[in-house]
Amino acid sequence: MKKLYKLFTSFESIFSAVFIIGGLGLIIYGVFMRYILGDGQSWVDEVSKYVIIWGAFMGFSVALRDGYHIRIEFLYDRLSKRGRRYLDMFGSVVGCIFSTALLFYGWQLVSFQITSQQRSIDSGLPMWLVFSIIPVTGLFLTIRYLLFMFKTVKGEAGESGTELELKRVLEESQKKEVKTS
C-alpha cells in the first residue's frame, strides 16, 4: 500500500511539474519563433495555455496533499485538537462532495465533447482531450480528500499550514545534516 501511495504521490508531482515546465518551454519557443525568426506559430499560444492549465489543475491535488489549500489559520490555530478534527472532517466532506461533482460533471462535459467532435481553432486538438483534465482533477482531489478524512479519523490530521511548513523545514534541515555528516 505504501508503494502505491508513493507512486500516486510521485505521479501527481511529476505530472504537474512536467506540464507547467513544458508549457513555459512552449511559450519560450513561441517567443523565439515570433520575435527572433519572424515566424509566429499560432498553435503554440493555444497549446501552451492548455498545457499550463493541465499542470495547474494537477497542482491542486499536490497543494491539497502538502497542506497549501486556503484555511483561516488565525481561527484554526485557536481551536482545540477536537475542534480542529471536526473542522477538518467537515472541510474534507465538503471538499469530497465538490471534487466528486467535478469528476461527475467533468466526465459529462468530456462525453459531450467526444460526441460533438469539437476541435480547437488553431491547433485542431480534440476538445475532449483539453477538457479531460477536469474529471482527472476531480478523481485526484477525491482520492486526496478521502485520504485526509482517513487521517482525520485516525487522529493524524489537525495541523495548521504553519505547523506543516515548520515540519517540512525541519525535515529538510535534518536530511542536510545527515548528508554532511
UniProtKB/TrEMBL annotation:
State the signal peptide span: none
Query: Could you tell me the membrane topology recorded for this protein?
Result: Multi-pass membrane protein
Where is the protein localized? Answer: Cell inner membrane
Keyword set for this entry?
Cell inner membrane, Cell membrane, Membrane, Transmembrane, Transmembrane helix, Transport
Membrane-spanning ranges: 12-35, 47-65, 86-107, 127-147
Q: Which residues form the Tripartite ATP-independent periplasmic transporters DctQ component domain?
A: 25-154
**Matching InterPro entries, A to Z?**
DctQ, TRAP_DctQ
Question: What family, per the record?
Answer: Belongs to the TRAP transporter small permease family.
Give the protein name, as stated in the record. Answer: TRAP transporter small permease
- Organism lineage: Bacteria, Bacillati, Bacillota, Bacilli, Bacillales
